[in-house]
C-alpha cells in the first residue's frame, strides 16, 4: 500500500484540544484515515494573567526557565514579561516553539519527559540556583520536587489552564464504537475520558488500542483497567504519532 493510503479506512479518535489537533488530523486524513474528534479539554489563559506576567518578569535572573509544553511557550509569549533567559524544552515540539521566538533551548536527547529534562547536565549541580518552571495549572510536581531535592530554588509559573469539556456518554460511546485507535496526550486526558464513559463506553475504551505519550501513561492505563494494545511513539510529535499508527495499523 502506498504511503498516501497507509491508513485507508482506519478509524482514529483524536482527543486533543481542537486547535492543537488540526495538523495531526490533516496528516491522518491525508493517509486515508477516518478521523473522529472528541476534544477533552480547552486550553485557556490563567484567570490572572497580569500576576503571571509579573512572576515571569521577576524571574529574569533565574538560571533557566523550563517549559513543559508548547502551550507554556505560547501563553508565556502572550504576557508582557520582557526577554527570556536560557530556556529548556521538555520535548521537540516545545523546542521548535521556543526557537520560533528566538530562543536556543536545551532539550533531552531522547527521553522527552520530565525525567529526560531532569537528566540534563545543566540540572545536576543546581544547589542554590534559581529555576523557573513555566507550565499549566495543576501540572505534575515531579520536576519541581526533584530539583528542590537537589538544592535548587524552584518556582512554578502557571501561564495557562486546562478546562474539561463536557460530553455525554452517548457521544463518547459513538466516538469509540469500532475505533481502530484512540490518541491520548496525557494521563489526565485518559482519566477524563474514563470519567465521561458509561459502562458500555468504558468497556469499549478498556479494549481499545491506545496511543499514549509516555511509559508513565502506559503504566497508568494498565492500572486504570485498559487491557487493549498500548502504543508508545518515539517522541511526542505529530510525525511520531503518525508513524506509530502506520506501524500498528497499516495493512
Automatic annotation (TrEMBL):
BP terms from Gene Ontology: protoporphyrinogen IX biosynthetic process; uroporphyrinogen III biosynthetic process
CDD domains in the cross-refs: HemD
Keyword Transcription in record: no
UniProt entry keywords in alphabetical sequence: Lyase, Porphyrin biosynthesis
Residue stretches making up the Tetrapyrrole biosynthesis uroporphyrinogen III synthase domain: 26-227
InterPro entries in UniProt: 4pyrrol_syn_uPrphyn_synt_sf, 4pyrrol_synth_uPrphyn_synth, UROS/Hem4
Biological or metabolic pathway of the protein: Porphyrin-containing compound metabolism; protoporphyrin-IX biosynthesis; coproporphyrinogen-III from 5-aminolevulinate: step 3/4
MF-aspect GO terms: uroporphyrinogen-III synthase activity
EC number(s) on file: 4.2.1.75
Swiss-Prot/TrEMBL catalytic activity: hydroxymethylbilane = uroporphyrinogen III + H2O
Functional summary from the UniProt entry: Catalyzes cyclization of the linear tetrapyrrole, hydroxymethylbilane, to the macrocyclic uroporphyrinogen III.
Family of this protein: Belongs to the uroporphyrinogen-III synthase family.
Entry protein name: Uroporphyrinogen-III synthase
Species the sequence originates in: Solimonas aquatica
Taxonomic lineage: Bacteria, Pseudomonadati, Pseudomonadota, Gammaproteobacteria, Nevskiales
Amino acid at each position: 500500500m502506498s504511503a498516501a493510503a497507509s491508513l485507508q479506512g482506519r478509524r482514529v479518535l483524536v482527543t486533543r484540544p481542537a486547535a492543537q489537533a488540526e495538523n495531526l488530523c490533516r496528516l491522518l486524513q491525508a493517509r486515508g484515515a477516518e478521523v473522529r474528534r472528541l476534544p477533552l479539554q480547552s486550553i485557556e489563559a490563567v484567570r490572572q494573567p497580569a500576576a503571571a506576567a509579573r512572576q515571569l518578569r521577576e524571574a529574569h535572573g533565574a538560571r533557566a526557565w523550563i517549559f513543559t509544553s508548547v502551550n507554556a511557550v505560547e501563553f508565556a509569549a502572550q504576557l508582557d514579561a520582557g526577554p527570556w533567559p536560557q530556556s529548556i524544552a521538555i520535548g521537540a515540539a516545545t523546542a521548535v516553539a521556543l526557537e520560533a521566538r528566538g530562543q536556543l533551548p536545551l532539550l533531552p536527547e531522547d527521553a522527552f519527559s520530565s525525567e529526560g529534562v531532569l537528566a540534563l547536565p545543566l540540572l545536576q549541580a543546581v544547589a542554590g540556583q534559581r529555576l523557573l518552571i513555566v507550565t499549566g495549572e495543576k501540572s505534575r510536581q515531579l520536576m519541581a520536587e526533584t530539583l528542590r531535592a537537589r538544592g535548587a530554588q524552584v518556582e512554578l509559573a502557571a501561564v495557562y489552564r486546562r478546562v474539561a469539556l463536557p460530553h455525554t456518554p452517548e457521544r463518547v460511546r459513538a466516538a469509540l464504537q469500532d475505533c481502530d485507535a484512540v490518541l491520548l496526550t496525557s494521563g489526565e486526558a485518559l482519566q477524563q475520558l474514563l470519567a465521561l464513559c458509561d459502562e458500555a463506553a468504558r468497556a469499549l475504551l478498556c479494549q481499545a488500542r491506545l496511543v499514549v505519550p509516555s511509559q508513565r501513561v502506559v503504566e497508568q492505563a494498565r492500572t486504570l483497567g485498559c487491557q487493549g494494545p498500548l502504543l508508545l511513539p518515539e517522541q511526542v510529535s505529530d510525525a511520531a504519532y503518525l508513524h506509530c499508527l502506520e506501524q500498528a495499523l497499516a495493512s
